[in-house]
Amino acid sequence: MIWLAILLVAVAVLEWLKKERAIGFALMLASLGFVVSLGVLNVEAFIVRQNIQREIKGYDDVPLRLDSQYFLNLSDDAVPALVAGFQNNSLTDSVREELGAALACKRYEHESDLEHPRRGGVFLFAVLFRLSEKHSYLLVA
């Protein structure tokens, strides 16, 4: 949104200065800035952290359920944030179990993609939904 606002201001200023030919250059700079900031910010790790915080704090003091199923749709960029959440001992056991289950599914997907590159699909999430502490060895590489 910031890059869009910057572009809007740049277009308004360039119009006011009667420099319409520079609008294309401003568009290219704003696009480049947007693409670079996406690489720097790691949006998917941000999504994981925000979902964990939402689970902890809730909304108007009503706890919201962690959307751990959505974590399976995220790319491998989200894995470091999932691991950090799983290793965070201050989180409740239920949150850590759901994060562990998501990590186990991500690992299974990664291993099955390496073994069978043409085979797609997601491992059945329900099998590992309630990963207990005694099964956390599944997550160790």
Please provide a written account of the structure.
Helices cover 60% and strands 0% of the residues. The chain has 141 residues and is mainly α. It folds into 2 domains: 2-41; 43-139, no CATH class. Helix 1 packs antiparallel against helix 2 (23-41), helix 3 (43-57) runs parallel beside helix 5 and helix 5 (79-87) runs antiparallel to helix 6 (93-115). The chain is elongated, with a radius of gyration of 21 Å.
Give a brief description.
The protein is an all-alpha fold and 141 residues long. The protein is built from six helices and no strands.
Keywords summarizing the entry:
mainly alpha; 2 domains; 141 residues
**N-to-C SSE string, H for helix and E for strand:** HHHHHH
Mean pLDDT: 77
Strand segment tally: 0
Count the domains: 2
Count of alpha/pi helices: 6
Helices and strands: which structural class?
mainly alpha
User: What's the end-to-end separation, in Å?
Assistant: 38 Å
Q: Judging from the principal axes of the Cα atoms, what is the shape? A: elongated
Helix content: 55-70%
Largest sheet: none
Strand content: under 5%
